[in-house]
C-alpha cells in the first residue's frame, strides 16, 4: 500500500510565498535600476558596470554549489535550510541598501566600492536564496501541489514588480531625489525584504526537520564530488539550466535597458512605471492560469509556448517607428505580462529535477540541485547586464544627454533583438527536456518503494 504523500497547508504555502517577495525585491531593484543608478546618478562607466556583473558570476560558479552542499548537510534545531533564511535575510537587506549608497569619493574608489559591495551582495544572496528555493521540494511530495507552491512564490514577483517598477522612482522623488532619495528608498526596501524572508521561514518549521523527514539520515553523508555529479548526470536539469540562462539573458537585457529606452528613445520616461502598472492585471491572470496549464499541457510546454509567444511583442518593438508610441507601449506591456509563462515556470520544474537526481543516482541533494538553478539565475542576469553595459558603452552613451543615432540604435538592439535571440535558444533547449508529468509520477512511485525497502532493511 502506498504511503501517504506529505503536503503543505494553505497557510504554509501563503507564508512560504513571501520568500518570493523577499527574493524579488533586491533582484528586480538591481535588474531595473542598478545600472541606471550607477551611470546616471553616480557617474560610473556602463562598461565598468557590465564587468561588475561578470566578475561576481565567476565567484558564484564556486560558491553556489558549495552553498548547496553545505545546506544539504546542515543539521540544526532550526532545520537544514531555515537557519540560512532566518539569519541571512537582515544581512541581505543591509548589503542591498549599501548598493544604492555609493559614497562621494574619487571615481576609482567608487568603482572599487561598488565591486566589493556587489560581490558581497552576491555571496549573501547565495546564502539566503539557495536554502529558500531548496524548501520547495521539502514542503510537499505531491507534484501538483509543488506546482502550486512554485507558482505562489513566483506570483510574489507581481507585488515586487509593483513596488520596484512602479513605486521606486516616485519614492526616490518624494524622499528628496538624487542620493538622498535613493538612500531612504533602499532602507525601506531592505527592511521589507528581511521581514518577507522571516515570514517565509516560519512556513517550513513543520517540514524542515531533519530528524523526521530527512531520509538521508539513514545513509552516510556524500562528498562534494558526488553531490556535483547530481548536476552532470541530470539531463532534464541541464536542459532547464540552458533554457533558463538564455531566457534570463533575454529578460535581464529588457529589464536593464528598459528605462534607457523609455527615457532616450521614446522621450517618455513617465511611461516606464506605467507599463509595469498596466501589465500587473494580465500578469496576475497568467499566474492564476499557470497551475491549470501545467497540469493540462505540462510544465515544459508552458515554458516552450510561452517563449515562442514572448518573441512576438519584441518583434513589434523592433520594427515599429517611435511615433507609434502606444503600439510600442502595448507591446512592452505584453512582454512583461508573459513573464510567468517563461522564466517563472522553471522554478516549478526544479523540484521534479531533484526527484530525478535521487532516482538516477540514489543521492538526494535538494540544495546542490537548487544551487545550479540559482547560479544560472544570476549568470543569465549577469550576461544580459554585461552585454547591455558593453553595447551601451561602445555605442557612445553619455548620461543625461541627447544620445546619438548609433546609441539609440544600440538601445533598441539590447531591448528587443538580443532578447529574441535568447528566447530562440531557450526554445531549442526545451526540445530536449523529457521529464513530463507521467514520467515524474513513475519516479515518485519508485522512490517510495526504495525508501520502504531501505527502512525494512534497517529495522
Distance, first to last CA: 19 Å
Report the average pLDDT across residues: 85
**How many strands in all?**
0
Q: Could you tell me the strand content as a percent range?
A: under 5%
Largest sheet properties: none
Fourth-tier CATH superfamily name: MFS general substrate transporter like domains
How would you sum up the global shape? globular
The CATH class is: Mainly Alpha
Spans of 5+ residues with little confidence (pLDDT < 50)? 211-220
Q: How would you spell out the order of helices and strands?
A: HHHHHHHHHHHHHHHHH
CATH topology title: Growth Hormone, Chain: A
Assign a percent range to the helix content: over 70%
The assigned structural class equals mainly alpha
- Assign the CATH architecture: Up-down Bundle
Number of domains: 1
The radius of gyration over CA amounts to 22 Å
Helical segment count: 17
Multimer state: single chain
Amino acid at each position: 500500500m502506498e504511503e501517504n504523500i506529505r503536503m503543505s497547508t494553505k497557510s504554509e504555502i501563503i507564508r512560504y510565498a513571501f520568500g518570493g517577495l523577499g527574493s524579488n525585491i533586491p533582484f528586480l531593484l538591481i535588474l531595473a535600476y542598478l545600472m541606471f543608478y550607477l551611470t546616471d546618478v553616480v557617474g560610473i562607466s556602463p562598461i565598468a558596470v557590465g564587468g561588475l556583473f561578470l566578475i561576481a558570476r565567476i565567484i558564484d560558479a564556486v560558491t553556489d554549489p558549495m552553498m548547496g552542499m553545505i545546506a544539504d548537510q546542515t543539521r540544526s534545531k532550526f532545520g537544514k535550510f531555515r537557519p540560512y533564511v532566518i539569519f541571512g535575510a537582515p544581512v541581505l537587506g543591509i548589503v542591498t541598501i549599501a548598493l544604492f549608497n555609493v559614497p562621494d569619493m574619487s571615481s576609482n574608489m567608487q568603482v572599487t566600492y561598488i565591486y566589493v559591495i556587489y560581490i558581497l551582495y552576491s555571496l549573501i544572496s547565495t546564502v539566503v536564496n539557495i536554502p529558500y528555493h531548496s524548501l520547495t521540494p521539502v514542503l510537499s511530495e505531491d507534484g501538483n501541489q509543488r506546482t502550486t507552491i512554485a507558482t505562489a512564490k513566483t506570483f510574489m514577483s507581481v507585488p515586487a514588480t509593483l513596488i520596484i517598477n512602479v513605486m521606486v522612482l516616485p519614492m526616490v522623488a518624494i524622499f528628496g531625489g538624487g542620493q538622498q532619495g535613493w538612500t531612504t528608498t533602499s532602507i525601506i526596501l531592505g527592511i521589507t525584504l528581511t521581514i518577507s524572508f522571516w515570514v517565509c521561514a516560519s512556513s517550513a518549521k513543520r517540514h524542515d526537520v531533519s530528524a523526521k523527514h530527512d531520509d538521508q539520515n539513514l545513509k552516510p553523508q556524500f562528498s562534494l564530488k558526488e553531490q556535483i555529479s547530481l548536476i552532470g548526470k541530470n539531463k532534464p536539469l541541464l536542459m532547464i539550466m540552458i533554457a533558463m540562462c538564455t531566457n534570463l539573458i533575454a529578460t535581464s537585457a529588457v529589464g536593464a535597458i528598459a528605462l534607457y529606452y523609455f527615457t532616450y528613445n521614446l522621450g517618455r520616461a513617465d511611461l516606464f512605471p506605467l507599463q509595469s502598472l498596466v501589465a500587473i492585471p494580465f500578469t496576475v491572470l497568467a499566474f492564476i492560469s499557470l497551475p491549470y496549464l501545467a497540469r493540462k499541457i505540462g510544465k515544459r510546454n508552458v515554458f516552450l509556448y510561452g517563449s515562442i509567444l514572448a518573441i512576438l511583442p519584441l518583434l513589434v518593438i523592433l520594427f515599429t517607428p517611435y511615433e507609434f508610441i502606444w503600439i510600442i507601449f502595448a507591446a512592452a506591456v505584453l512582454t512583461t505580462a508573459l513573464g510567468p509563462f517563461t522564466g517563472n515556470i522553471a522554478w516549478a520544474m526544479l523540484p521534479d529535477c531533484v526527484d530525478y537526481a535521487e532516482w538516477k543516482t540514489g543521492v538526494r541533494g535538494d540544495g546542490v540541485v537548487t544551487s545550479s538553478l540559482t547560479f544560472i539565475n544570476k549568470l543569465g542576469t549577469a550576461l544580459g547586464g554585461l552585454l547591455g553595459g558593453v553595447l551601451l558603452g561602445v555605442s557612445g552613451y553619455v548620461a543625461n544627454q541627447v544620445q546619438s543615432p548609433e546609441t539609440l540604435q544600440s538601445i533598441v538592439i539590447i531591448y528587443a533583438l538580443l532578447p529574441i535571440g535568447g528566447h530562440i535558444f531557450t526554445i531549442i533547449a526545451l526540445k530536449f527536456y523529457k521529464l513530463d508529468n507521467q514520467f515524474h509520477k513513475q519516479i515518485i512511485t519508485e522512490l517510495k518503494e526504495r525508501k520502504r525497502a531501505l527502512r525494512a532493511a534497517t529495522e
